[in-house]
Amino acid sequence: MYHSSPALTATLQALRGQSDMHVIAPAFSNRQFARVLPFAPDVHPVVGALGALAGALPNGVPQHVLESPELSAAVASSIGTSAGDRILPTWAKIAPAGWGEPYAGALIDIANRGRCPSWVAAALIGPTNDAAALLRLARDIAVAIRRWGEATPNDPTAWMNTLSPEQQNRLLNALRHTPVAAASCLPWLPPEYAREVAGLVAQNDSALALGAYASASPIARDRHADILSALIHRTDMYDLGDLTHLAVATGMDAAWTTIGQILSESPGSAIRVVVMAPWDALREDVQTTILSAADNDPTSICAAIAFARGVSSDPPPIGEKTAVAFFSTVTPEVWNELPKEGVSIGQRELLSTPHADL
Fold first, then answer.
1. What's the number of domains the chain is made of?
2. Cys staple from 33: which of 11, 170, 229, 256, with CB 3.0 to 4.6 Å?
3. pTM here?
4. C-alpha dihedral (347, 275, 240, 242), degrees to nearest 10
5. In the predicted model, what is the mean pLDDT of residues 150-156?
6. Three-class secondary structure of residue 85 per DSSP
C-alpha cells in the first residue's frame, strides 16, 4: 500500500496555493519537489521563490520577490530547520547585502553545529570578525570574500575595513597558500595582494579568475587592469569559453583581440566561443575570423558555423561537435529552409544529432 511522503503532501498543498510555512516546509527538503514550485501557476509567489532557493535555482527568484519583506521573513523562519538547510546556500548567493546581520547569532550557531556551510553564514552576515572567524577552508574564505566584495561594487575591498588586522591577515594568508581558491575571488582582493596571488595562479586556474572578473564591477576591473591584462595574455584555447564571457560582459578590446588570435591558430576552438554567447554578441572581427576558416578547419566546426549562418550552402560532415556548433549559430532563415526530415550526411541526420560534452 502506497503512503504519501510528507514532502509530496506539502508540495501538493503548495500547488493548491497554501503559503503557511508550517504546512509546506517539508516540500523544501526535497530538491526535485521544490523545483516544481517556481513554475506552477497557482503557487504563492513567496512559496515559488522558496522552491527556487531550495531547488538551487537562484535565477528562479523574481527581483520584486527577492526584495520583498515576506520572502525575507520566510527565509529567516527557516534557519536551523531541514528546509533551511536547502534554502540558505542558494539564498547566500543572492540575498541583499547584510541580510543576515540581525540573525547573526542563529546563523553562527547552525554553522558551528554543521547545519550549514561556514561560507553561507559568513556571506549572509557580512564582513564581521565573528563571521570571519567561522571561515577555515580557503574555498569557504574565497566564496565569502566574493559575496562581501559584490555587496559594495563601488568599493570592492570595503569588506576589509570592518575586520580586525588579525582576521584580515588570516584570511589573506589562507588564500596565498591556495591559489586556486584565490583565483575565484581575485577582483575583490587588494590590488597589491592580488598581484602577488595572481602570479601564483596556475595556468589551469586562469579560467576561474577570468570568470570572476567577468562578474565583477567595472571599478574592480579598473583597479586590477594590469592583473587582468596579464591574465588575458596568458590564456589559451582551453580558456576561450571564459574569455568569451569576459569579452561579452566587458567589451574589452584585449579580450576580443586575444580571442581572435587564438582562433587564428586553432579555428576548431570556435565551438568554445559560440556555445558561450549568441553569434550577434561576438565582435565583427571574431565572426570574420571564424567564417573565413570554414575551408581550412580540419574539424569542420567553422564550416558548420558558416552553413548555419547562411554563408555556405554546403553542409559539412556532421558529428556531435559540429552539430552543437550548428545549433548554436543557426539563423531562422537557414533553419526554416532545412527539410523537415533533417539533412542526411553520411550516417547522421542533422536534426537528430545529440549534444556532446565539449
1. 3
2. 11
3. 0.85
4. -150
5. 96
6. helix
